[in-house]
Amino acid sequence: MKKQLFSFIFFLGLTFPQILPAQLWVEPELGEVKQNGTPYEKGARKGIGFELILNDFGFSIGSQFRYLISSSQEYTIDFGIGSLRDVSEQTFTTYFSEIIPNKYNRVLNFPLLFGFKQRVLGSYIQDNLRFTVQGSIGPSPAFVYPYFIDANGNGFRDSNFEPVSDALSEWGKGTFKFGAASEIMLGMDFGQDNKGFSSFRFGIVMHYFGSGIQIMEPNRFEITRIVGNEIQGFIVPSAKPQKFFISPQFNLVIGTFW
Questions:
Q1: Which residues contact 16 (CB under 8 A, 6 or more apart)?
Q2: What is the pTM of this model?
Q3: Of the residues 60, 71, 236, 238, which has the maximum number of CB atoms within 10 A of its CB?
């Protein structure tokens, strides 16, 4: 009997330390692990955003539509409202006015660009920061209207008595010009969910108008005196109609997917 009791106690001594930890330790439930992924992989297919644009022509605003065709490729449509100018313009500001010498016309520009965007370095950089290359092309209508009030109708600004117009008063004398525009942009897309997005792009934009736009005053003959039937004077050199408008450009886009 003593031998059986001793054997039983010896058996408990060997097995109890093994059973007790198994009873006290309970394996925790597995929690969800948040994995990176592109908006396309999380269900986004379309997006629209508000766009701020900065280039040598000034500030512009616009909108961008995106159509996602894969996790690394998109079709884009960009529409902007801005201005075009001659990059040689010099602005002189006083307390009451702003004057650009020899400026002839103001130009409002409404480019509509259709583009394709490709993600690059996707295997090396996380999905919440995506580097892209984008090319776009499309029509670029422009509304051209006088910079000054031509009181005597000679087609040139006589600075002594012809004032600079405000941004709206000479619209009735404006005309439309139709051209084309293109962009080549490098960009960074931020975010990894299927709700919102933000993008920063930088590159080169070019506008082309076949007939040209007269931004600065054309050449004119300045009369100094009239002697008999002879008119004496000199030619004031100025600018020819400008066909190409090229500038570096920076874009910030903030929008939402669905």
A1: none
A2: 0.77
A3: 60
Helix ranges restricted to H, the chain: 2-24
Q: DSSP strand E in the chain: where?
A: 46-55, 58-68, 73-83, 92-93, 98-99, 105-109, 112-120, 129-146, 175-190, 196-213, 220-227, 230-236, 242-257
| 159: nearest Cα among 200, 99, 219, 69 | 99
- In sequence order, what are the beta bridge partners of 7? none
Q: How many other CB atoms are found less than 10 A from the CB of residue 106? A: 22
Closest CA to 126 of 197, 62, 35: 35
Domains of the chain (ranges; CATH) run 2-257 (2.40.160.20)
Q: Among 78-87, 169-178, 219-228, which is the least confidently predicted range?
A: 219-228
Read off the tokens for 41: 């992989």
Residue in this structure with the two tokens 């975010």, named with its chain if needed: 191
Contacts of 95 (CB under 8 A, 6+ apart): none
Decide: 238 and 219 in contact? Cβ < 8 Å. yes
pLDDT at 139: 98
Q: Is the dihedral of CA 64, 248, 167, 151 positive or negative?
A: negative
Tell me: the pLDDT tens digits for 238-253? 678 999 999 999 999 9
Residue 27 has what pLDDT? 62
Structure tokens at 57: 């022509």
